[in-house]
Amino acid sequence: IEARYSFPIPARAAVCSFAMIKRDGTRVVGVVQEKQEAKETYNKAVAQGQQASLMEQQTPDVFQVSVGNIPSKEQVKIELVYATELSEDEENDSVRFHLPMHIGVRYGQAPASLNTPVTSSSKSPFLKVAMSVEAVSPIAKIGSPSHAVSTELGPDPSLPNFKELPFPNYARVSLSSDSALDKDFILTIKSAGLDAPRCVAELHPSPVKSRNPSAIRVINFGGSEV
């Protein structure tokens, strides 16, 4: 069985990683290749009877994932990680997270395969959204103007330092839908200090013994750089 799924992502998002997780837990991490080379690699693997996956960019905002040689009654998970900016909602003094759900004119021409209704024999919900939110100060208000969601203040209990984290600065949001969504998911977060200058640092995953940065860049919320 070969499955294909086309979906939009935010226009300014940057894809960071792509992986296929098999039923036995085996994790196959994707590598970046030229478009034609990637297709040939995928087709060759499928022809040899291997379970393989391919992610292609169809338009600037629309991607397609193909998974080949899926055994009958087996579940395969696809993991996609991308980074995107939160937009500012000046009227409500909040920030907005936008998750595209529907391919329409805004996201390019929808593939012909999506012109028919999506059906499934599975009893599981069509879509599940689970989000963890962290703010620099206590969250005053959080919600979705587009969908009915469940919200709960506090950090994720699975975090190793759960009890040490500032409780009001965190929130969890969940959504479960039994039907295909025909509009995008939007989440708004209101918290003090959202426009304050800040600096974020991440530890590189590779084991480097010493790091001596030659330059430091500071970016304020207004977009100017120092």
Structural summary, described in words:
This protein has 1 helix and 13 strands. The strands form 4 sheets. The protein has a 4-stranded antiparallel β-sheet, with no helix packed on it. A 3-stranded antiparallel β-sheet has the order 1-5-4. The chain is mainly β and 226 residues long. It comes from Mycena pura. Residues 1-84 form the VIT domain. Pfam families: VIT. InterPro entries: VIT.
Distance between the termini: 53 Å
The amount of helix comes to: under 10%
The average pLDDT score comes to: 82
- Measured by DSSP, the beta-strand proportion falls in 35-45%
Envelope shape = globular
Q: Count of helical segments?
A: 1
E-strand count: 13
Regions with pLDDT < 50 over 5+ consecutive residues? 114-122, 221-226
What is this structure's SSE topology?
Blueprint: E1 3-8, E2 14-21, E3 27-29, H1 35-47, E4 52-59, E5 62-68, E6 77-83, E7 87-89, E8 94-99, E9 127-134, E10 139-143, E11 150-153, E12 170-177, E13 185-191
Antiparallel strand pairs: 1-5, 2-3, 2-6, 4-5, 7-8, 8-13, 9-12, 10-13, 11-12
Organism: Mycena pura
Protein name: Vault protein inter-alpha-trypsin domain-containing protein
Domain VIT: 1-84
